[in-house]
Amino acid sequence: MVNKSLLIVDRDRGFSHALADALASNGFPTRIARDEHEALEEIEASRPSMILLDSQFSQDGLMHGLAIRGIRLPIVLMTSADGAQKAHDLGITAYMEKGGSAERFLGAICICNARAANREEAKGAA
């Protein structure tokens, strides 16, 4: 069975809960963390399949924490401005404007899942 659980890392409780509700109603169980420390605890405890990360956080801190633990997960950077360059510079899987609809978030999640599956398939073939 494919793990479809997600972790939202965002200080905005209203946004986080609204997005979590929309994602859960579309088959993606979702947890919420308010900062990098909570995020790392949640990742170790629940092993989500993907992280939706607010761009206001120190991505370097979270990325470093994941690297130390040997954890590689797809990350969607949630930003209120054009985040393509920032996402690329950090090696983040994708980015999404925060004002986007739940359907756009679902689309980004599906694309990330497909990319992750292709990477795993390529590693298995090597």
Keywords:
single chain; 126 residues; alpha/beta; Rossmann fold; 52% helix
CATH architecture: 3-Layer(aba) Sandwich
CATH homologous superfamily descriptor: Response regulator
What is the alpha-carbon Rg in Å? 14 Å
Given the helix and strand composition, which structural class is it? alpha/beta
Mean pLDDT: 80
Shape category: globular
**Could you describe the largest sheet, including whether it forms a barrel?**
5 strands, parallel
Query: Reading side by side through the largest sheet, how are the strands ordered?
Result: 2-1-3-4-5
Number of strands: 5
- Number of helices, counting only DSSP H or I runs of 4 residues or more: 5
Assess the beta-strand content as a share of residues: 15-25%
Looking at the structure, the CATH topology is Rossmann fold
What is the top-level CATH class?
Alpha Beta
Compute the separation of the termini in Å.
Answer: 23 Å
Can you describe this structure?
There is one protein chain. This protein has five helices and five strands; from the N terminus they run E-H-E-H-E-H-E-H-E-H. It starts with 5 loop residues before the first strand and ends with a helix. The model has no long low-confidence stretch (mean pLDDT 80).
Short description:
By secondary structure, the protein is of the alpha/beta class. It contains 5 helices and 5 strands, in the order βαβαβαβαβα. Strands 2-1-3-4-5 form a 5-stranded parallel β-sheet, with helices on both faces.
Task: Indicate the topology.
Blueprint (H helix, E strand, L loop, with lengths): L5 E4 L3 H12 L5 E4 L2 H11 L3 E5 L4 H11 L5 E5 L4 H7 L3 E4 L4 H24 L1
Parallel strand pairs: 1-2, 1-3, 3-4, 4-5
Helix pairs in contact: 2-3
